[in-house]
Amino acid sequence: MAPVAPLGKDRVLALLRAGRLPFSFGSPHPSVAVLEQDGVFRLRELVVDPGEADAAAKVSMAERGCWMPEQYYALGRPTGRVFIEAPTLDALAEKVEAYPWPREW
After folding, report:
1. Which residues of 54-71 are buried (b: 16+ CB within 10 A; e: fewer)?
2. Three-state SS for 32?
3. How open is the CA angle 49-102-22, to the nearest 5 degrees?
4. Most C-beta atoms within 10 A of its C-beta, which of 23, 33, 51, 68?
5. Residue 91 to residue 51: CA distance in whole angstroms
6. pTM of this structure
């Protein structure tokens, strides 16, 4: 996967309102996920475990001779900072509308 353009607030809202969860976004690589977790809906930072990344890089290098940024970012898990949280998708959409949207999202 090549670097991607930001998804943008309008597209995130459209996906939320369509109930198309989970999904991730961010530019140049996914850094945020929208998902239902622990009974609530969240916009949450994707975090890559360094140990898991090191192990995956070693395997990839041994098997294919390459390790690309896309492979690293694909290991991201929604375990980082919670940017927005709400009890329903509608409430999450309202909070997303009011959130100061970073350019890279």
Report:
1. eebbeeeeeeeeebeeee
2. strand
3. 55
4. 33
5. 36
6. 0.88
